[in-house]
Amino acid sequence: MLCIDESGECLGPHIWNEEMLREARGEFIFAHHADFRRLLYNAAVSLGADVRLGTSVASIDPEAQTVTLENGDVLSADVIIGADGAHGMARRLITDEPPEPHSMVMYSTLVSKKAIIADPELRYFYDRDYTSMFSWFGNGRVSIGFPVGGKDEFALFVYGSADGFESTWREPALLDGMKEALSLGEPRLQKLGELATYATCLPVQDFRKLEDEEWVHEDGPMLLIGDAAHPYPPGAIQTLAMAIEDGAVLAKLFSHLRSSDQITSFLYAFNDLRFKRCNTVCVKEFTDIFFMAMPPGPESDGRDNHFRGRRDRGLNVLDAESLEDETPQWTEIKEVFGYDAEDEADNWWQEWGLLRERAAGRAEGLNGFSDVQVMQVQVGS
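Now predict its structure.
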């Protein structure tokens, strides 16, 4: 549901086409980040992963292929995977390029469902035929809200001008900063802000200038994935999906592992396969924020009037009426949903991987595994 921040006017709904989602073999899931982590944790442990909690990483040596923990333990493996985020130790080993100075921040909070449905004006957010995401377009401001699946809470992301209160996901922010960002918004947004009891505030940092970045360490078999490789703005819709795609591509490539001398080519194949895709989606995420936060003027008027016209004709606001009428937003959506990470990895193997194996005289029995250890490291702060 698209709305105007200042007035609350509804610019129109967009109901996702179930056939498109089925064909793309995906769907939207509104979930707590903690629940998502727990799901991945349980899956990893069930497959034999050794997850060490309560200890941080002190150092990483890609050349020696070791990771030293704060408690003194030294872990070694044939591959080190750095998945510790945009500001983690693993990323700093491969690139020390800072992002562009940021001009926006994002506040993130959760509001009790019980408190929302107790207010007749706010109950609207739950009285829907479909679980809905609400997006408010404002002058240099954006708010995004949605019910969180499995929990009786409503998530709210508030983007606004940098105010000096930014910190990390682990540190609470001043609620007054978020309320100030909502102060010019419609009454429902202000009420949601008043109901919040906790918030975090993150800088919206833009890493897109790092277009020639490599994710493989030059001194040893170490690879970055997730936000450590391709940081997205906080609150981005596709962040977790991109991380899952990373895992799928990496797993598919290493399913063909037969000898340790294949590892380096697999790591660079991952880099090549994922870079364009991740950069394209990252550009879309930033573009969406700026599209929704346009200042008053002809461009924002044209945007809003376009959506009003579709709303008044009973159409989904992002759908195209014909191929000629297809909007840039809808084209981007199709590209995001139409991508299959495992197919991309399979195509690389058929076009390049098998060719290399034949050249190395290993054309037979290519589905076997050698005794190669892969270590993924979540670096603590």
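The chain is about 35% helix and 15% strand.
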